[in-house]
Every structure is written in C-alpha cells, then in structure tokens.
Amino acid sequence: MQLPPVVAAPMAGGPTTPALVNAVAFGFLAFGTCSAESAREQLAKVRGLYGVNLFYPQPEPARETVERVARELGASVPEADVTSGFAEKFDIVLEASPAVVSSTFGCFSAAEIERVHKVGSEAWVTVTCESEAREAATRGADGLIVQGPLAGGHRGTWDQNERPDERPIDMLLHAVRAETDVPLIAAGGVRTREDVGRLIAAGAQAVACGSAFLLADEAGTSAANRSLLRSGGRSVISRAFSGRWARGVETRFTREHRDMPAIYPYLKPMVPDNTYCLVGKDYGSLREAPAAQIEAELTP
Asked: Is the predicted pLDDT of residue 282 greater than 90, yes or no?
C-alpha cells in the first residue's frame, strides 16, 4: 500500500478521535483501551483509508507481585483484563475491513493475519528489536512499526518484563532492515519535517507521529493534559504510569515508585487518582493547530 510520508499514530485513552483520523491523509484509530461499544461508534464515524490498532493479549503478570504492590499501595487486587478485550474488538474491526489492522504488545498469530488478509486488510505489527521483527515477518506481517525509545505512550515490547531497547530509532531501523524486507514505519521522537525526511532516508516507508498531534484541534486530549503539555518539559520512561514501560510527563507517583514492577494492567485500577499524560520527548515544541496543518508542517 502506498502511504503518505506522515501517518497519525494511534493514541489510546482518548487523544485519537475519528475527527483526527478523518483530518489527515492516513491515521489510526486506537482501540487498545476502549470498549467494544466505543469501537463500533468510532468505526461508524471514520471515512476513507485508515488503520486500527489493538493491544494484543498478554500473559498474566505474576500474582504474588501484583499482591505485593497492592499491599504497598494500600489497595486491593482489582479485576483486570490482560486481553484488553482483543477477541471481540478484533472481530468488530474485521467487519469494518480497514486498510490496516495493527497490533501492539504482541504479534498476531499466522492464523489471525490470514483472517486480516481475507477481509482485504493489511496486518502491521509494532516491534522494538530485531527478534520481534523477524518473528512478525515469519508470521506474515505486511508492515512493521519500528518504535524507538523516544516515543510517547507505551513501549510496544512483546514481553512486559523486558527492559525496552534503548537504541535510537535510526539505529533500530538499520538493524531491522538488515533482518527483513517487510516495509517499515518508523515511530518515536519525531517533531519536524527534517526528522521525517531523515527517517525515510534511513529506510522507513513512512513515519508514524503520535505526540505531534496531541494538541491538534481534533484530538481528544483532555483540558488538563493540554494545559500540562503547553507548559513544556522533559518526559520520562517509567512503569509507574500503568505497570508497563511508558513515556510521559514525570509525576510525583513516578518519582516515588521508580522500581515499579511489571503488573500491567493491574496498576491503574489500584490507584485511580494516579492521573498521567503520556507523551514523547521534549513536548514543549508541540503545535496547537488543525491536524491537517500539523501534518503539512511535518511532511518533507
């Protein structure tokens, strides 16, 4: 599939809206944390070519670790769905047959990729290292979203117990390109058209930008987070946002819990007041403008 140089990356939890996806040449709906009902509603509002991203099911974190963290926080162990409702939302997405269906936190099985192909869609997989890229290519992925360490939001590592690869996105692109000829989409830390041009020259077919659209007029970013992002600053990578490695605005909770273990998705319901804003590096340069204008300013 021929892609524009800039793709609007999926931002789960509210920032990505159908209006944002409709405003750009190609964008992704973010179904990682939404309900099946919300997924249907969003699909009914989107038009043209677009993609949909899903959080892939993962193993339960160690029960004793979850219980220990709950005791330390003075909370009870909550109910949590490690599948993120994947099966039901996967069926809903295939009914809509978007141009692309992508996964984060894991890779579609070969059988699931075959189902994606049967409805005429492409299957993309988020990868953070060469071994993930090789496995995704072996299973039949049509595109690999190579996510670097400066990306805002959750890191896409397949195993939440692993420390994410810290090599710069340019280096990761070269390393993954040496392993496979599957089309690559670069992601992480992009703020300018020069960044986009550099990554395309490094071998990316397109560049996925998420944080760059957080202050777009059409984004569903909350008023509180918009105010926080306007103040500018440095983001940090921590498990204290959700129990999984993620990059966002540093908070008191992230400072006090630097050694939070891997317990996603149990952490958030344990501390509902632990509000946070996930964003990539150097967020003081984010533009407030219509999404189409931001896209144009990013396009070489």
From this structure: no
Give the whole-angstrom CA distance, residue 300 versus residue 204.
13
Among 279, 276, 240, which residue's Cα sits nearest to residue 260? 240
Q: Are 265 and 242 in contact (CB under 8 A)?
A: yes
Q: Is it the case that residue 285 has pLDDT exceeding 90?
A: no
In DSSP notation, 81-130 reads: -TTTTHHHHHHHHHHH--SEEEEESS---HHHHHHHHHTT-EEEEEESSH
CA-closest candidate to residue 195, choices 173, 179, 214: 173
| DSSP alpha helix (H) spans, the chain | 18-23, 36-45, 63-73, 86-96, 110-118, 130-139, 169-177, 193-201, 223-230, 252-256, 267-270, 291-298
The one-letter amino acid code at 223 reads A
Taking only the tens place, the pLDDT of each residue in 61-117 is 999 999 999 999 999 999 999 999 999 999 999 999 999 999 999 999 999 999 999
Assigned token pair, 233:
């600053």
Residues 31, 53: Cα–Cα separation, whole Å: 6
pLDDT in tens, 253-265: 999 999 999 999 9
Sign of the CA dihedral 101, 265, 156, 221?
A: positive
Cα angle 192, 198, 200; round to 5:
105
CA distances in angstroms from 139 to 107, 108, 142, 241, listed in the order given: 8, 8, 10, 32
Q: What is the CA radius of gyration of the chain?
A: 18
Q: 38 and 15 in contact (C-beta within 8 Å)?
A: no
Rounded distance, CA 21 to CA 142, Å?
A: 21
Alpha carbons 293 and 26: distance in angstroms, whole number: 14
